[in-house]
Each structure stands twice: as structure tokens, then as C-alpha cells.
Amino acid sequence: MACYLRPFVNSGPTFSDFGFPHHREKRCSHMKDPSEKSVILVVDDDADCREMLSDLLSNEGYMVVSAKNGRQALDYLSGSTAALIILDLMMPVMSGWEFRARQKSDPRLESLPVVVMTASGLVHDIDADAVVRKPIDFGLLMSLVKQNCPPP
Q1: Beta-bridge partners for 6
Q2: Residues 61 and 83: beta-carbon distance below 8 Å
Q3: Contact at 8 Å (CB) between 130 and 98?
Q4: For the chain, how many structural domains are there in total?
Q5: Does a structural domain hold residue 112?
Q6: Considering the domain boundaries, does residue 126 fall inside one?
Q7: Per-residue confidence of the chain (152 residues) as pLDDT tens digits?
Q8: Fewer CB within 10 Å, N or C, the chain?
């Protein structure tokens, strides 16, 4: 399913208002080491969705890393960390459900906040900090991002 943003009424810009900015860094207040860069990890098998979310979050000042499935996300997290994970559920190789099960079983990763984004109605069995339905409401998504990774 294609990933696109549903504008939030009177919330400001939508995807079409943004260019393709360079990635900038912002540090999340809950990161432990002041020298540690905060990263939002976007996990989605749809390349257009990953690129769009990366561009939008980067435009808001966040550093973004993307993975096309849960396996790639776990590979990234084996040597790095993230301040927030934005996770699709329906992906090949490793689904969002399997990723969450493995994340929660790893003491180093279990406390990382996760926002699930999905077009699926099967979200009743996912344990996440928040769920955003596709098409993505940019105002809602940014509110959830800022709750978990506030700008300095």
C-alpha cells in the first residue's frame, strides 16, 4: 500500500510543502550520553514511505535512519541505538509483530519507544506506545514524535 500523508486540519504544512532538506541533528532529552546522537528509526518495506518520512522528520530537525524490514532494524540496533522507532507491521523478511517480540525480549532494546503505523486493522495484538493508521496524519505523527523525542 502506498504511504501518503493525510493533512491535519489547520495544523500547518503537509508533505507537498517540504523540499528535500539535508539531515540535521537534534538530541532527545531522554538520551543518556550527551555525545550520543539521537536517531529516529523508520522501519517500512515501502521505499516511498521511508523516503517521505525521512524527509519530513529531517525537515523537523531529526536525524533519521531507515530499514526496510524488522531484520534490518535489528541489525542496525545491534550496534547503535534509536530514540524512537516508527514501525510498519506488514513487511516481508520480518514483520513488525516479530520485530516487537524480539525487541521486547532484548533488555537493551525493550524500553525504546515504538510508534506503529499501519493500514492493517490488526493492531489489537500489538504492544506499542502509539498506533497511527495509514494514511498518516502528519500532525498526529509529529505530536507523537515530539512526546517521545522532544526538540531541545
Answers
A1: 137
A2: no
A3: no
A4: 1
A5: yes
A6: yes
A7: 455 444 333 333 333 222 222 233 333 434 444 334 479 999 999 999 999 999 999 988 899 999 999 999 999 999 999 999 999 999 999 999 999 999 999 999 999 999 999 887 766 677 899 999 888 898 999 999 999 887 64
A8: C
